[in-house]
Amino acid sequence: MGYVTRSYTYKQVGGNLRMTSKLNIFLLILMLTVSCKKDCKTIAEWNIQNYTIKKLKCPDMVASDYFKYSVYVNNKRKGSSAVKKDSCTFTWQAENDRFLTLDICNNKVFEKTPNKIGLDFKMVDSILIYSNSKSKSKKLTPEQIRKFTTDWNKSQTRGYSEKPFDSAFYFYPAYQYKLTLFSESKIKEFYGYNYLILDKNNWKYEMDENRSLEYFNEYWNN
User: Fold this and answer.
1) CA gap 47, 103 in Å, rounded
2) 3-class state of residue 76 by DSSP
3) Most confident of 62-71, 78-87, 140-149
4) Band of the pLDDT at 48, cuts 50, 70, 90?
5) Side-chain-side CA neighbours of residue 31 (13 Å)
6) What strands lie across the sheet with 156-160, from one edge to the other?
7) What's the pLDDT tens digit per position in 84-142?
8) How many CB atoms are closer than 10 A to CB 101?
9) How far apart are CA 216 and CA 213, in angstroms?
10) What is residue 136's predicted lDDT score, i.e. its pLDDT?
11) Are 142 and 179 in contact (CB under 8 A)?
12) Which helix (H) or strand (E) holds 151?
């Protein structure tokens, strides 16, 4: 009889635990559903020419509320990635090739666009690649130089970076490789990370249409 009693107790406890687990899951789903239904609230608004910036307070499904800045153009929402730099200025990547600074104090909008200059393989004397992790440099082969110049000329704009030239990427380390191009006594510098490259004007470009994370590693390893 004692064995039967213990067996019944274990089943009862197991059943209670399963019921508790299901209840917790139900409550979690209910909480997430309620949170998702809550809308962001506008708590501040600024107008600059035909642009409107709204500071929104939004509910988080797990943590506390968070804030974001949405940009509207002619009353149509265009994005939510504006950055407040100080009491007067916001910056916003309007498009991959358009970076705006919006001055709410003086009602002015400043636009930056890339000034990409193509490379002629025949005019390149050499390219030196420096590995940030190994603290070593080596020259690219003629075949690698041809590939680099071709890919640069075909590359698509990825956006602008406000960070310093040698630490513009949002990852650690700040860059993987530094490339120095020598052409007719002129020097051009680039920084590379995965398949992205940064020029001296702090514009990023995609060097590989397949977005291979090994793109720059292949220059170093081959």
Assistant:
1) 10
2) strand
3) 140-149
4) very high
5) 10
6) 136-139, 126-131, 177-183, 186-193, 196-198, 203-206, 156-160
7) 999 999 999 999 999 999 999 999 999 999 999 999 999 999 999 999 999 999 999 99
8) 15
9) 8
10) 96
11) no
12) helix 142-154
| Amino acid (one-letter) located at 209 | E
CA dist 216 and 208 (Å) reads: 10
C-alpha to C-alpha distances, 222 to 135, 143, 190, 217, nearest whole angstrom: 17, 11, 19, 8
Give the residue with greater pLDDT, 107 vs 27.
Answer: 107
What's the pTM?
Answer: 0.74
H or E segment and range at residue 9: helix 2-37
> For the stretch 23-33, what's the b/e string if a residue is b when 16 or more beta carbons lie within 10 angstroms of its beta carbon?
eeeeeeeeeee
Per-state percent for the chain, helix, strand, coil, to nearest 5: 30, 40, 35
The answer to whether residues 176 and 133 touch, using CB atoms and an 8 Å cutoff, is yes
User: Is residue 75's pLDDT more than 70?
Assistant: yes
Name residue 31's amino acid: M
Exposed, middle or buried, 177 (CB in 10 Å: 0-12/13-18/19+)?
buried
- pLDDT at residue 171 above 80? no
Cα 128 to its chain centre, rounded Å, is: 27
- C-alpha distance across the termini of the chain, in Å: 76
The Cα 116–Cα 69 span in angstroms is 30
